[in-house]
Hints:
Layout: E1 2-5, E2 12-15, E3 20-26, H1 29-35, E4 40-46, E5 50-54, E6 59-65, E7 68-73, E8 79-84, E9 90-94, E10 108-110, H2 132-135
Parallel strand pairs: 3-10
Antiparallel strand pairs: 1-2, 2-5, 3-4, 4-9, 6-7, 7-8, 8-9
Amino acid sequence: MLRGSCACGQVRYEIDGELRGRVSHCHCWQCRKHSGASFGTTAAVLAAEFRIVEGDGQLGAWESSPGIHRRFATCCGSPIYKTLEAIPQIIALRLGTLDDDPGRTVEGHIYVDSKAPWVTLDDDLPTEPGGSKFGDRF
Length: 138
């Protein structure tokens, strides 16, 4: 089991499973804006294995693009996950909200053509200009 929470701890969740697909640092403008950082680190989890255990009433949502719904903690603003109407069985989880070690590491950088100009990628992780190779985590 994996556990996670928002920054203030009012929203807590559990995952009765493991991360699915690739773990990626996404440099697209949306992930940068939604995380308030140079990239967002995301992996998929099965919706059937994910549950909010505390603070469900504190979850806000908005449609960031047609069919993409982002959930965040209204108490502190932490981005928690997003869902895509086209694949409702998958949740794209923001890994910065995990409280437990998922036992996985990042496998690549995606959307590096959109990365912030002040970011230098100096690790040995593979990069992808868009999201197709490493971003297909669903």
